[in-house]
């Protein structure tokens, strides 16, 4: 049996950046205009359920946090946390550098942490407070590697358990590092 599409979007819907299924519906996050995200139900791809606008520059990443919220990341150097139900911005996160490159961003769903890369060649860990709680440099590079202006380009959480995680981070120069973490009780 060959898979076949069950629904197609016609016209200009934008770039698909995130998908979430919550048991009732499948939501898709689309980049329609550079600085905004439109949330649509997969069953009704044409009409937006919510529009999240607030970034000053292009939105590069969208992630669902598992708690009814959406995290967006943009080349304005900000992450923004949004309530899905109301469409309102809860918080803006600052600290990482992201003016031109696609630095990675990921959410530890049960732990409430955001991990992201930076053009400063660092990994940032942020919680609901808004400011980074931990910043780790991709250290151990030669002078040539530092001069190449490497940056952290990809991050991904691995949830080991509800209280334990690992963050895999990769650099634009091919370096990969794994960070292990445990929730404080």
UniProtKB/TrEMBL annotation:
For this protein, the record's InterPro entries field holds: RUP1/2 (IPR044616), WD40/YVTN_repeat-like_dom_sf (IPR015943), WD40_repeat_dom_sf (IPR036322), WD40_rpt (IPR001680)
Q: Which Pfam families match?
A: WD40
Look up keyword Metal-binding and say if it applies.
Answer: no
Q: Spans of the WD repeats?
A: 52-92
Gene3D superfamilies, alphabetized: YVTN repeat-like/Quinoprotein amine dehydrogenase
UniProt keywords (A-Z) are:
WD repeat
List the residue ranges forming a coiled coil, or say none. Answer: none
A biological process (GO) of this protein is: response to UV-B
What is the protein name for this chain?
WD repeat-containing protein RUP2-like
